Structure formats: C-alpha cells, structure tokens
Amino acid sequence: MSKIFNSPEMNETIRRYFAMEKNMRGLDYRELSKRLADAGVEQSEGNLRVKMTTGKLGTPLFLHLLMAMDVKQLDMDQLSNIYEQVRSDLQKKV
After folding, report:
1. What is the number of alpha carbons within 13 Å of residue 70 lying toward its C-beta?
2. Is the backbone of residue 58 left (phi > 0), alpha (psi -120 to 50) or beta?
3. Domain range for residue 25?
4. Whole-angstrom Cα distance, residue 85 to residue 67?
5. What Å distances lie between residue 59 and 31, 39, 51, 93, CA to CA?
6. What is the pTM of this model?
7. pLDDT score, position 7
C-alpha cells in the first residue's frame, strides 16, 4: 500500500476533521452509533470511538459518518488546511 494513503499525517487529519464536525454538532459516539444503525451500518460506540480517534476509517464508513453527521459539503480547502497544520505539528516534534 502506498505510504500517502496510509500515513500518520492523513490519519491525524481525518481524526481532527471528524472531531471538529462532531463537536460543532454536539454529537457523541453513542448518538453517532445510533444514527449509523438507523442507516443500516452497525458500529458499536466503542468501535466507532477507536476508529474516529485513530483516524483509521475505510471509505464507506467515512462517507456514512459524513451522512450521519449531516455534513452537506466536504470542504477540501478546510481539509487541506488541517493537513498542512498536522504536517507542521509533526515536524515540530522532530
């Protein structure tokens, strides 16, 4: 697998993005798990917490989470900014 698709930077970007969206909407993992179940996607609260806090999500779950959180548009500029911040933060640690 290509490193760019399985990188700590991208996982952290996804983690920060979902944390931001979840917090902006006042959602917790229990509610997200319920919303996913209502859409036919079984994810326990604990399993969802692990996946979202590590940023390691498959594409189908990524899309289901966006829909469960009622995200209408994916702002690529915003994601790009988060990614650049993550890269900067990680470089400071080195």
Report:
1. 7
2. beta
3. 3-93
4. 25
5. 20, 16, 12, 29
6. 0.84
7. 85
How many alpha carbons lie under 13 Å from residue 36 in its C-beta half-sphere? 21
- Going from the C-alpha of 78 to that of each of 14, 32, 42, 62, the distances in angstroms are 11, 22, 29, 16
Q: How far apart are the C-alpha atoms of 36 and 27, rounded to whole Å?
A: 13
Pairwise CA distance, residues 55 & 12, whole Å: 6
Low-confidence ranges of the chain (pLDDT < 70): 1-5
- Give the pLDDT confidence score for residue 93 in this predicted structure: 79
Count up the domains in the chain and report the number: 1
If 0-12 CB within 10 Å is exposed, 13-18 middle and 19+ buried, where does residue 27 land? middle
Sequence length of the chain is: 94
